UniProtKB/TrEMBL annotation:
Similarity section: Belongs to the glucose-6-phosphate dehydrogenase family.
Name of encoding gene: zwf
Annotated Pfam families: G6PD_C (PF02781), G6PD_N (PF00479)
Species annotation: Arthrobacter vasquezii
Protein name: Glucose-6-phosphate 1-dehydrogenase
InterPro entries named in the record: G6P_DH, G6P_DH_C, G6P_DH_NAD-bd, NAD(P)-bd_dom_sf
Enzyme active site: H248
Amino acid sequence: MTTHAIDEQASGHQFQGQAIKTLLILGASGDLTGRLLLPGLARLVRHGKAEGITLVGAGSDAWSTEDWQERLATSFAAASPDTGTRNDDGALEQICAGSTYHQVDVTAEGSLAELIAGLQPPVAIYFALPPAVSEKACATLEPEDLPDGSRLVMEKPFGTDRESATRLNTILGRLVPEDHIHRVDHFLGKATVLNILGLRFANRLLEPVWNSLHIDSVDIVFDEKLTLENRARYYDGAGALKDMIQSHLLQVMALIAMNAPSTLHERDLRDHIGTVLRASSVHPDFRSSTRRARYTAGSIDGREVPNYVDESGVDPSRGTETLAEIVVSINNERWAGVPFRLRSGKSLGRTRKEAVITFKPVNHLPDGFTGVDSPTRLRIGFGPDTLELDLDVNGPGDVFCLDRATLQAELNASELLPYGEVLDGVLSGDPTLSVRGDTAEDCWRIVEPVLEAWKANDVPMDEYPAGSAGPSNWSTAEVGGEK
Ligand code: NDP
């Protein structure tokens, strides 16, 4: 067996850069496939991409190809028909009619290899499976099972802990070169998240103040009203820290904190993301640098929500948190002393998805000014996609009484939506929006000590009623300020 080093990436592969001919989705009956992947593919096709792709579904369900095609037609039809630059319903029908389904246990020795051997190369294999199943499935493959140019697409969480992520990287490295591995973090396919790069690096205004001299703190918040939504099988084994912070929010933090790359080439960009995450850690006094909580019964928008521990499929002995917050330090010259607070939770009273940059006050405000005294902030909203910048200006009436003005902009969301962007990268062979192997391991390194401390009950498990702002002993005002 050969190990593909990163330096070998650019050389020799017959299908390097060549468009994928077959997309094989493992876990075809799963939630991700139905709700996100198939609609994402439909949007791509409606934009004239993914031309002539053959779609193959596989899973443990005893479906016929006709069952699968019916499901495809429904998912494609549901994927906003209003988008697209051309009428590609014919192309979608063609994909549907040419698609086949295969019942297979992907962890059974040889089963996957046999399936892949019958497909037209190059093939992209999307592991839309539970993480532990993906690892087992990869472990059954040999390099010779994969036709040249194959791409492997791994979902988040990548592995179940640092050790398994390292093991998975080793297995994947034996199978294909690093740039043929797409570790999906669909937040990197969100247009607003990528807009952070344009905002930071294309505006003279921001970069000079983007450091600890001028910035007091950074909050990255992803609070949802959504409850378990029948996903206990996955979520109860993960929790808020692994589900959201370990992957998505650390990637957002990296885009906010990284130095400017000289190009947007995948190696430059991913090197810079990797560098800033390597410098990041959570202070080992976990009682002050982390918090966790779990929801109790409550109501959200008039809907009754049961206690988390009473939800079907939840095992209370796991002690899974539904709200997590960690303060990350970035130990470099630019960010020393600036807390990056990352928070995410379910079943909260309001949806809040944003990064908030809180600026320090001016060094000296001329005596005589009165008025607002709260800090100015830049808010980057991730849905709806917005920008808001606070400025304190002379107000009406008493002109020396300051008034808070907030400049607002709405950003255009990508019509492809995150999974359209993800699939576009996979099918066209561009790994820029995927997480590099070393970075995936580093994200585990950052959160693993926290997980251990929580497991040892070093940090109390707080509670909050579903539909509330969080535990009553947590001040929400300190998380990026109230709006
Ligand atoms: P589901 O549990 O809904 O689906 C998993 C799929 O894998 C099912 O179709 C299941 O079939 C199949 N499967 C399990 N074991 C085997 C096996 N041995 N052989 C063949 N098929 C098997 O999970 P999700 O779709 O929600 O998640 C899949 C991945 O995507 C996870 O890594 C998750 O973290 C990630 N993800 C999911 C998101 C979502 O919103 N759902 C969002 C972002 C990432 P069966 O049901 O018959 O067992």
